Every structure is written in C-alpha cells, then in structure tokens.
Amino acid sequence: MTKFLTLKNAIAEIVKNGDTVALEGFTHLIPFAAGHEIIRQKLRDLTLIRMTPDLIYDQLVGAGCAKKLFFSWGGNPGVGSLHRVRDAIEHSYPCALEITEHSHAAMANAYEAGAAGLPLAVFRGYIGSELPLANKDISSITCPFTGEKLAAIPSIKPDVSIIHAQKADREGNVLIEGIIGVQKEVVLSAKRSIVTVEEIVDNLEVTPNACVLPAWAIDVVAVAPQGAKPSYALGYYDRDNSYYKEWDAISRNRETFNEWLQSHVLTQGDI
Amino acid sequence: MTTNNPLTEYTSAEMMTITAARALQNGMTCFVGIGLPSEAANVARLTHAPDVTLIYESGTLQTKPDVLPLSIGDGELCESALTTVSVPEMFRYWLQGGHIDVGFLGTAQIDRFANLNTTVIAANHQETGKDGAHSYANPRVRLPGGGGAPEISTNAKEVFITVKHSKRTFVEDVDFITTIGFGRDGKGRDNLSNIGRGPSVVITDLCILKPDSATKELIVTSLHPGTTKEDVIEATGWEIKFSETLETTPTPSKKELEVLRELKARTEKAHSAKEAI
C-alpha cells in the first residue's frame, strides 16, 4: 500500500547508492523534481535507465550520480547533444560512464516484459542493424511454431522506478493522462516505486479506460507541483521548449553547468 | 537557388521539404520521424494529402499539429490526435502489427545501399573499413542513437528518407548501420518473410534518388531545377549513377510555399515564446 511522503523523504527512503533506477516519462511527465532531489542527496553509482535520457539524465550524469546509462535515444530533442553525457562518456568527467544502448522498440518491449514478470522480451526487431555488435544483451530466439528468428533481450527490472503524474486521490490512486509512454510498465516492472504528482484531489474523476495506477501498486506518492518542468504535464503546464534550447549553452561547458547546479539545484529544494 | 518568378522564388531547403511532402499520398498511414520528415509530412497533410494519417512514436495516433513539434512528444501532438496509446502499444501493435504504410526518416549518414547511421561517426573509419563494431569502440562523434528507426525501417511497408545532400552525409559505407536500408551488400532484405520492402525514395536538397531494382544501389532519378549532375557528384561520397530517364523535379507551387512558410512561422513563434507562469 502506498504512503504519502515529502519528496525529500521519499528519495531518502526508496533510493540507495548503487541502485538501478528508471525515471521515465516519454518527453511528457519527466520527473525533474525527483531527479534534482537525487542530486541534492548526493546518491552515487546509480545505473540510470531511460528511453530518452533527456535533460534530466544530462543533469544527473553531470552531477556525478551515475556509473552506467541504459538508453535508446540520447539527444536534446530538436536541439542537439546532451553535453554532460558526452563529457562523461568521452572524458570520464565528473566520472566514467558505461553505456548500454538499445532501440526504442527494444526498450518498450523490455519494460513490458518486466511488468509482465517475464525474463525476456521477444519482438521482431534489430534486423540488419549493427546494434547487436555494440550490445551483447541483444540476442535472438527461434519461434517453436513458425521457425521465425526473432530478437530477444532481457526484460527490464529496475530496483526503483520514478514517474510523475497529474494527480492522486487521498488513497494514493494515481491518474496519468496524455502521452503515457511507459509510465505504467516501469512502475509495475520495478521492485520499489515513487510517483510524484501535481496535486492531491478528492476524486480522480476517471473514465472507465483511463490510465490509473492503483495505490496498492505504488510504494510512495509525493506531491511535487510543477515537478515535471521544463517538460510538461498535460492540463497543467506546457513544455518549455525555449528552456530546452537554453540548456545547450548551460550544459556545453563544465563551469556554466556547475554554476547552474549550484544555483538551481543544490541550494534549492526541501519540498 | 531561386527562379526568376518572384511569386515562386524558393530556397533549396523549401524545394527539399515540398518534394518530400509530395512523396506522401493521400490516405497513407505514415510513421513520422522528428525534424525534416515531420515538416514534410505536415506540409503534405496541409496541401494535397488531407487524409494522410500521421503517427509519432510517442503514441499519438492520427495527429494534426498546428505547429511543428520540437520533440517527438510535444503536447501539441497529443492534443490534436485522434487518440494516444502507450509506447509499447505503439511499437508492438501499430508498427510491428503491420499497420504502417510508410516510415519517414531522417539520418546523419546514409550510404549507397541506403543504410542509415545515427549512432556514431568513427575516428578512423577510412583505415579500418566497414566494421560497425570497430566504429562503435572508436568514436569521433557520438550521435543520439537509434530511437525508433531500426524497427520503423523493417516493420513499415516502405521507407522514405529525407536528408540534406553533402559528402559528409552521403558516404560509400556508413560507419555503423543503426538502421538497415539494404545492408552492406544490398542483399540484407533478401529471403526474409516478415520485412517491409525498405527505402523506396530519398529526397535531398539537390535531387531524388531511388534504389536500383536489381542491385538496390541508390541512383539519381530526378534533379531539382538549377542543379547539375556535377553538383550531385561533388556532394556524394561514392561514384553516383544517374537514371537513363533522368527527370527534372517540378518546382514548388505558390500554395505549397505559402503553407510551408506559414507553418514554419507559426512554429517559430510558438517555440520562442517564453511560457507564462
């Protein structure tokens, strides 16, 4: 059963050094506030999983929280590179970063397999791609009924998943609306989970097929208003596209990034 | 490059987008990549193909954005969509399930067999030759990676590619095959039953290329007005061949140019506006 904690207490209780952690949200509902709290608590040696590392993992990697990155598309969408991630891969700054790389279809399938309690994901993928040369986890399996060779990869089963959502009711049931990405799958695939929400409401007012995570499937709910900024929360605020463009200059060199880290993360918080 | 008629003056970038838009037919279902493909697909929707179905990998089905998205998951895509599904459902049911007519992709590198590289530019590819594993271990430039492209290219019925033409982009052999065109030898799709027919057209700012029906090597089938064969030869990293029935690409119409420019102006305005809190 879920419990309500402050974001600070949620991260302190759920995330440990060395954990495999997935902070998901496909462009939408990216849990930035939770990411910043991880930075403030100086968690280290994390294996970070995300389909699109986005600015949030550029920040966590730049702050020295990660030893490994597991991803399928690693850019600043529509803008360019993730400079902190590149600096870590290319120059081991602020520490070395190992990478494991997949395609989107592979990671989406692996999350779904994790949620389904299966050891592997099977899909029609990676045909003719050289990604299997770069990632030893990409294998194949032969269909026992048709003989077709299909791609096989291990399912994703993180220690911790963290997502942001629009709202929870007073029991901790959570409603996710809009681009739902892999929000449901990542929570169900993880050992422990945190959901940050814009607000707590008396009634979720759901339609019958809405994307709802029941309270008993979540460990912790934490209120984090505007917790997905500069990404967005449908119905609450828009994606701050100009911030994504500005990030390119902030992250491009170590000094400006470290100044940003100091003024925008380390000296903030305590929600 | 411009024509003499002031009403229909256009840039080579506009020529590329509008030619790419024309490749999409009304009624097609198109899985759209971000950037140039998204621009072209939306121009098609706003001109000759009002009933084209646009699908983005963020799960937005049948979307009709008023401005171009900066990211694959902008709110605009969701709010103007018929419905939005989860990302696993998008890749498993809608793409892998065989519902996509065309995958529309961009790329960082493309080779003569239309293989695409968005993973890594190698430090010393010339010395090591065609070895994706070596390129991956010896990167000069790290690119974003595969995203949706590796499976879009094989699970869509066909693939359109649009990319700016330069020697850096059009290489004889890509440093790394992120996404298959026709493989290192042109035979990568042979004898596979559950695979789309692959790239059918490549649209650049200079010309249109199509794979040769026998060898699958890309050849130039149409030159944009004002472009010479020498321009294309100069911008291509292999000995490019030209079709015996080489055509001249029709110029953009006034309507197409208006639609493209208005779309870009709306987009620019929307993305530069600071969000009001």
Automatic annotation (TrEMBL), chain A:
Keywords on record: Transferase
An MF annotation (GO) of this entry: CoA-transferase activity
Transmembrane segments: none
Domain of life according to the entry: Bacteria
Coiled coil: none
Classification via Pfam families: CoA_trans
SUPFAM superfamilies referenced in this protein's UniProt entry, alphabetically: NagB/RpiA/CoA transferase-like (SSF100950)
Record's protein name: 3-oxoadipate:succinyl-CoA transferase subunit A
Natural source organism: Marinomonas ushuaiensis DSM 15871
